[in-house]
TrEMBL record:
It comes from Vallitalea longa. The keyword Ligase does not apply. Keywords: DNA recombination, DNA-binding, Transposable element, Transposition. This is Mutator family transposase. Required for the transposition of the insertion element. GO terms for biological process: DNA transposition. Belongs to the transposase mutator family. The lineage of its organism: Bacteria, Bacillati, Bacillota, Clostridia, Lachnospirales. GO terms for molecular function: DNA binding; transposase activity. InterPro entries: Transposase_mutator. Pfam families: Transposase_mut.
Length: 407
């Protein structure tokens, strides 16, 4: 095993050595791995009690190992038989599996919980050492958190709802070590809002470069998971996304995030003009109609075009995907004109990953993002405010597309 996650070749070796053919075989292999982790922890504790490592014949000894006692314990993977080391003086008091304790699932949960908070394997080692006085190596942490991998794969491939009125797409970037090099990787996140007005993360994909081919693959995966229709996509200026959406969901409306567009424009403006420029720009995106917005954009160009041409060029260039929200009532506009719903989730991702400058593999990054997603979405218990009114408006606008899915 490597210090963090197993390689593809090692995973193949595990599959072959354990004759894995079914999900039950996977769980059995994970169970054996967890047993090995607990056994190693117990051996480390015994080393600490005796004051010397096993097979160290040079140390003076006042106490000795004295075989093992078998013990059956419960974990989240089922019952496990472990061998608890004994010493001749009966001084050994295991902390990881105390005497008379039969359930050790809390150890797994604690390590996974620490991992979910963004703690590095070194931090977890120190935390477990402080709590239990035992050593938990990076390899142990990886082997315990690796049991998440089947869960992540199942989550990433789970069936989805047939229609989503709103889908938000964005990317957040991280550094990952690959073949001895540190490269930039993007985590592409998709959030859907269903007909009940509830948000859900539909998936997280780790990739290198944005392209229409890449997005086409992701959208085809959504389609294969049961998403037959999307009414409105809200996206950032992601390369190739427009073409991919039009290929898989040709009826969908595409709205480029106004907030991201404003940020890109404002970075060209000097501090002394910033307040006046932003005040003038509000007249564009807060206009009551597209015609009025174009009129205000003309006025903005007359006033600022010669001084800040780059701040305005992309508005004309991308107007076809910036103006979409003008077609809709205010209640729908407020949901679709920005992808801030993903920005809020990205802040949670940055919070748990801030201590990880570089991830050892894509899988290690995905594990941490999955745990952060699971924690964040547990708080998504309320539907959008005023959803009944919004759904009525959408039903009028998209009657034939929505009514087949309304019970």
């Amino acid at each position: 095993m490597a210090n963090n996650l197993i390689t593809k070749e090692q995973a193949q070796s595990i599959i072959e050595n354990n004759d894995i053919k079914t999900p039950q075989d996977i769980m059995g292999a994970l169970k054996n791995m967890f047993k090995d982790v607990i056994q190693e922890m117990l051996e480390n504790e015994m080393d600490e009690t005796l004051g010397y490592e096993r097979y160290d014949h040079d140390q003076p000894k006042s106490n000795y190992r004295n075989g093992y006692s078998q013990k059956k314990v419960r974990s989240s993977l089922g019952e496990i038989d472990i061998d608890v080391p004994r010493d001749r003086n009966a001084d050994f008091e295991p902390k990881i599996v105390p005497k008379r304790k039969k359930d050790i699932s809390d150890i797994e949960k604690q390590i996974i919980s620490l991992y979910a908070r963004g703690m590095s394997t070194r931090d977890i080692h120190e935390q477990m050492n402080e709590l239990y006085g035992i050593n938990v190596s990076a390899d142990m942490v990886s082997r315990i958190t690796d049991k998440l991998i089947p869960t992540i794969k199942e989550w990433q491939g789970r069936p989805l709802e047939p229609i989503y009125p709103f889908v938000f797409m964005d990317a957040i970037h991280f550094k990952v070590r690959t073949e001895g090099r540190v490269i930039n990787r993007a985590a592409y996140v998709i959030i859907g809002v269903n007909l009940d007005g509830m948000k859900d993360v539909l998936g997280i994909w780790i990739g290198e470069n944005e392209s229409s081919k890449f997005w086409l693959n992701i959208l085809n995966q959504l389609s294969s998971r049961g998403v037959k229709d999307v009414l409105i996509f809200s996206v950032d200026g992601l390369s190739g996304i427009k073409e991919a959406i039009q290929t898989v969901y040709p009826q969908a409306e595409i709205q480029r995030c106004i907030i991201h567009q404003l940020r890109n424009s404002f970075k060209f403006v000097s501090y002394k003009d910033y307040k006046e420029f932003t005040r003038d720009f509000k007249e564009v995106y807060r206009a009551s109609s597209e015609d009025l917005a174009l009129l205000k954009l003309d006025e903005l160009e007359d006033k600022w075009g010669s001084k800040y041409p780059h701040a305005l060029t992309s508005w004309r260039k991308n107007w076809d995907v910036l103006c979409t929200f003008f077609k809709f009532p205010d209640d729908i506009r407020r949901i679709m004109y920005t992808s801030n719903v993903i920005e809020n989730l990205n802040r949670q991702y940055r919070k748990v990953t801030k201590s990880k400058c570089i991830f050892p593999t894509d899988t290690s990054l995905q594990k941490m993002l999955f745990l952060a997603t699971d924690k964040a979405t547990k708080k998504w218990t309320q539907r959008y405010r005023g959803w009944d009114k919004i759904l009525n408006q959408l039903t009028i606008l998209y009657n034939e597309r929505i009514t087949p899915y309304i019970g």
